[in-house]
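Incident review: delayed structure delivery

Summary: a single-chain prediction request sat in the queue longer than the usual turnaround. Root cause was a stuck worker, restarted by the on-call engineer. No data loss occurred. The affected request and its eventual output are reproduced below so the record is complete for anyone auditing the incident later.

Affected input:
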Amino acid sequence: MTSYAVTVTRDDNLWVAVIDGLSPGATDVERFADLEVEVRDLIAGLTDTDPDAFAIHWRYEVNGVDVTDKLGRFLAVDSELRDRMKEREALRAETVMTMAKAGVSQRVIADVIGVSHQRVHQLIRG
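Output delivered after worker restart:
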């Protein structure tokens, strides 16, 4: 799989991404969260490939300091946490439904899963 090295810096309230080896291989965004999509779109457009057909190796530099390691680790853990939270919510809803079908009261279900009985009611109603 083809990979591209991208260096991200902060300049004039913008996140600036420079793609090594591509011309004109630079873009900027206001929000950090928009970097991935914008950089992938730029690379895909410049190379006439699909945005998911290549890997990106990110380097983050802020005020001359390389923050790649810590930021990269944080972003990986944050992504994993979001995935786990989605799984948790799905399992919570399944548990509520299973317990309700078993005849357990909403107050008892709420006590078991640690939410209000109103939230249990919302989950049961969908």
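Verification: Residues 82 and 88 are 10 Å apart (CA to CA).
Action items: add queue-age alerting; document worker restart procedure.
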